[in-house]
Amino acid sequence: MRQAILPVITFGLFAMVVADRLSHALASHSPEPVVQGPSDARAASVDLPAAEEAAGPTATSLPNPAASPSPTPTIDRLARLAARQQLSREAGATYLDSLIISTDSVVRRWPDRGGVPLRVNLIEGGAQGYRPQLAHFVRDALDQWETLGIGVRFSPVSDTADADILVRWIDRFDFDRAGQTDLTWDRAGRVRKAAITLALRTNTGVTLPDAALLTVALHETGHAIGLPHSADSNDVMFPAARSGALSERDRRTAQVLYRLPTGPVRDLGGVP
Questions:
Q1: What are the residues whose beta carbons fall under 8 Å from the beta carbon of 77, sequence distance 6 or more?
Q2: Cβ-contact 84, 260 below 8 angstroms
Q3: Cβ neighbour number for residue 187 with a 10 Å cutoff
Q4: What string of H, E and C letters represents the secondary structure of 195-242?
Q5: At 77, is the secondary structure helix, strand, or coil?
Q6: Mean pLDDT of 120-137
Q7: Residues 6+ apart with CB under 8 A from 168
């Protein structure tokens, strides 16, 4: 029985890779229309006595592929099956279930770029109390994600028009939040733009210490590469982030995410 199942699993994994490559190749000729989530806000808070835990992310609305059913190619269905199997195997070591729930079963991340780095523009200044050290916190945060070897690299650019990721600072939010990331993605789940906003103070006017500023920067850059919230307070991607270093689950979640093909994981044409 095992000998009969093994070729099926192997073919399914091979199909997943082929389907992912085909989707990128087709996208270069017929790009999907870009969809901006109406309220794709990812919130981070800090562990301060004067600040309550930040509110969780508001609902994100994506076009529902099931609303307009169409035949699903067998190779694509096998790719989705392989993705579901991997998500199931990694359920205890990651928090990707949060992503699947919040995106209506769509794997959403930056597409493979063949080693080309994501261009990051840091809009320095703009808030009273801004210090050049704040830019170093963001660079440190990006370095931590880059060293995971998931194929995501970052490069600074000076022109906002050329940037894939924009980072800016404000004095404070009007509600209990220390950071926010807004993503733009296409219908295939490929992230196209990210905008990160970081506050220097809580909404009550309490100045955030350097350790908290680094933590929020790390949390928000995690959202910028596509990571969801975690329910474990030991993880950087916990809504009320407390740690300035990635946990093993943070690392594993990012690594698994960037091995999965983008797009729906549900079988829209029936289970093969």
A1: 267, 269, 270, 272
A2: no
A3: 15
A4: EEEEECECCCCCECCHHHHHHHHHHHHHHHCCCCCCCCCCCCCCCCCC
A5: helix
A6: 94
A7: 123, 126, 195, 196, 197, 198
Structure-block tokens of residue 172: 């404070």
Distance, CA of 272 to CA of 257 (rounded, Å): 23
User: pLDDT digit string (tens) for 14-55?
Assistant: 444 444 444 444 444 444 433 322 223 443 334 443 333 333
Residue 100 lies in a domain: yes
The number of angstroms, rounded, from the C-alpha of 171 to the middle of its chain's C-alpha atoms is 25
Do the domain assignments include residue 269? Answer: no
Q: Is the pTM of this model over 0.85?
A: no
Residue 109: give the domain boundaries: 2-60+73-264
CATH number at residue 158: 3.40.390.10
- Number of independent structural domains in the chain: 1
How many other CB atoms sit within 10 Å of the CB of residue 210?
Answer: 13
- Check residue 190 and report its DSSP letter: B
